[in-house]
Amino acid sequence: MTKRGIILCILSIVLAAYLAFGLAYAYKQDAVEPYKELKIKMSEETFITPAVIDERLGYLSARIASLPADSINTLQIERLVGSMDNVESVRCLMLNDRTVELDVVPLIPVARVFDLSDNSSFYINAQGKRMSPRPDYFNDVPVVVGDFSWADKADPRSAIPVIRYLETDTAMACLISSITISRKGDIYLVPMMRGHVVAFGDTTDIADKMARLRVFYRRVLPVKGWEHYDTISVKWRGQVVATRAQKSKAAPALPVVDEYDDDTFANTQGESPNF
User: Fold this and answer.
1) Are 121 and 224 in the same domain?
2) Angle between helices 160-168 and 206-219 (to 10 degrees)
3) For residue range 40-81, what is the model confidence (pLDDT) as tens digits?
4) Given strand 187-191, what is the order of strands in its sheet?
5) What is the domain range of residue 83?
6) DSSP 3-state assignment of 198?
7) Same domain (yes/no): 117, 100
8) Do residues 119 and 207 share a domain?
9) Could you tell me if 216 and 225 are in contact, meaning their C-beta atoms sit under 8 angstroms apart?
10) What gap in Å lies between CA 183 and CA 161, rounded to an integer?
């Protein structure tokens, strides 16, 4: 190797060492240099505000400028805020302008649940996450009722597919007062018009069941009367089975969670109107 080649080799090694040292020093400085501020952004402020989030984080917004940057754990922040029952989702980002941005979406309730096993009440979102009710917050969402101590079968989340369907069918949604789930897990729709309940079964073929119920409401009940039947079942494919109300019996108290079973529709009063 020539003298020139040796010099170039030495210079290359020195330059590489300098770059490595410079990058390591810059990385260390970046890890230590504090972030300037914490920005908490929310899609909307309803029952939760940035101040509540900041309190959950131990008032991080007031301390962040005095903390080393490498002490800020974005995953830990997301887990801490995400564990709040009134938070739907959260994302924590470290921005190039030396700020930490927290994007928070408040929980979006899809149903209000009343658990008859302990007389408790709570909201649930589309994933079934629970939020305790608050005196300063009300959301007009469908009501789900049941004895949910039988968690292996009765689960308020099982009503969510029906609720999602009703969001797209406003005409039927206006007719439904609440949804009751029996201990066996069967779904019953409680209409606004007292006098009967709708045995819906499970959440298979929801659109077809609603279509059959809609036709029954349009063609049969205007003739027979809204209180002629106490139970209308659409749980079996391709048919509507209605049970005549017992005139001598008082209308069943609502909500009912365990009165109906498959035997109800096997008695001599069952009718399957043709339409």
Assistant:
1) yes
2) 60
3) 998 776 678 899 999 999 999 999 888 888 888 999 999 999
4) 130-131, 120-124, 111-115, 143-146, 176-181, 187-191, 197-201, 229-233, 241-244, 270-271
5) 33-106
6) strand
7) no
8) yes
9) no
10) 18
